[in-house]
Amino acid sequence: MMKERRIRVLIAKPGLDGHDRGAKVVARALRDAGMEVIYTGLHKTAEQIVEAALQEDVDAIGVSILSGAHMTYFPRILNLMKERGLENVLLFGGGIIPEEDARKLEAMGVGRIFGPGTPLREIVAYVQEWYERERKPYLEALERELGLG
């Protein structure tokens, strides 16, 4: 059986969007809930975000976009995640994203999009529940396969 470990989450701000208060508030809520949080800072490319996720061995990537570029960045990040073998890492996000676009992104494989005013406990619960349901069983199976568990 896998020893308990903290959920690792990368919080990222792609592109030219310079407003990161919401991302920092979410990062703090995840940290306060016991998760290990890595914040990329502002103005990251999709490539930098996925590389950081790979290097930091994260369980989830949270992307905050307020600039309107969500239909460009989320699909690019998803494609890079697949190329780099991160299919079992959650990609979720938030920001000013119309509901119709959020539905399209979720259909593409983005876990969930959170809009302004979403209670922090809802975001925390979503990441925790996803981890228990999806990521933890994957990691346990991987450990068994490698003879570590």
Question: Can you describe what's shown?
Answer:
It is a single chain. The chain has 149 residues and is an alpha/beta fold. The protein has one domain (8-145): Cobalamin-binding domain (Rossmann fold). Helix content is 49%, strand content 15%. It has helices at residues 21-32, 46-56, 70-83, 99-108, 120-145; strands spanning 8-12, 36-39, 60-65, 90-95, 113-114. A 5-stranded parallel β-sheet has the order 2-1-3-4-5, sandwiched between helices. Helix 1 (21-32) packs across helix 5 (120-145). It is globular. The model has no long low-confidence stretch (mean pLDDT 94).
Q: Outline of this structure?
A:
With 149 residues, the chain is an alpha/beta fold. It has helices spanning 21-32, 46-56, 70-83, 99-108, 120-145, and strands at residues 8-12, 36-39, 60-65, 90-95, 113-114.
Distance between the termini: 5 Å
CATH homologous superfamily placement:
Cobalamin-binding domain
Instruction: Strand order, main sheet: write it out.
Output: 2-1-3-4-5
Share in β-strands: 15-25%
Largest sheet: 5 strands, parallel
Report the order of strands and helices: EHEHEHEHEH
**How many structural domains?**
1
How much helix is in the residues? 40-55%
| CATH C-level | Alpha Beta
Shape designation: globular
Any idea what the CATH architecture is? 3-Layer(aba) Sandwich
